[in-house]
Automatic annotation (TrEMBL):
Hydrolyzes RNA 2',3'-cyclic phosphodiester to an RNA 2'-phosphomonoester. This is RNA 2',3'-cyclic phosphodiesterase. NCBIfam families: 2_5_ligase (TIGR02258). The lineage of its organism: Bacteria, Candidatus Daviesiibacteriota. The active site is at H40 (proton donor), H127 (proton acceptor). HAMAP family: RNA_CPDase.
Length: 186
């Protein structure tokens, strides 16, 4: 099974992401938009592992969120990987209770390391992928300003009340996401 752990974006926030993507599509028609039902903030990508690992992953998530109450993050800006000027991925960065996101992520990472599972050592930036581009795409200063303008309007905070363990299932060159477990924050 192909596992990942993420904060799912609640349905009540998806209309705002649809509006962001509509604006992106107007500015960059060739962008491949992330399907709304796949919008999430990844905390850890585990990859292809044996199905038996699911129970241990759920335990890691439980211990990682044990004393963390529900919290909010707010979409704040658009950026890109590897960078905004030559993006292969466009994403929305968040502000707000980032300390809780980082705390949960580090605790999950520690749990994965205790199972001797490889973890991503790159600097973690909490983000929500909204589009992908071919690797030849360039963002000039004019387009960068227009991307900044998309995020000028007030966007509602996203209430995070659970962490989910997902299975990513390949299907016709794409992936569907199946929720394996949802661990509530109290």
């Amino acid at each position: 099974m192909r596992f990942f752990i993420a904060l799912e974006i609640p349905k009540e926030n998806l209309a705002e992401f649809q509006a962001i993507q509509d604006s992106l599509h107007t500015l960059i028609p060739q962008a491949k938009l992330t399907a709304l039902d796949k919008i999430h903030l990844t905390l850890a990508f585990i990859g292809e592992k044996q199905e038996e690992l699911e129970t241990k992953l759920v335990q890691i998530i439980h211990s990682s969120v044990e004393k963390i109450p529900p919290f909010e993050v707010t979409p704040a800006y658009i950026d890109g990987f590897p960078n905004i000027h030559h993006p292969e991925v466009l994403w929305v960065g968040v502000k707000g209770d980032i300390d809780k996101v980082l705390l949960i992520r580090e605790s999950i990472k520690d749990g994965l390391e205790s199972l001797r599972l490889p973890t991503d050592e790159r600097r973690f930036v909490p983000h929500i992928t909204v589009a992908k581009l071919n690797n030849n795409f360039r963002v000039d200063r004019n387009l960068e300003v227009k991307l900044e303008e998309i995020m000028v309007t007030q966007i509602e905070p996203i209430r995070i009340s659970s962490i989910k363990l997902f299975q990513s299932i390949p299907q016709n060159g794409l992936h569907t996401h199946n929720t394996l477990a949802e661990i509530k924050l109290f």
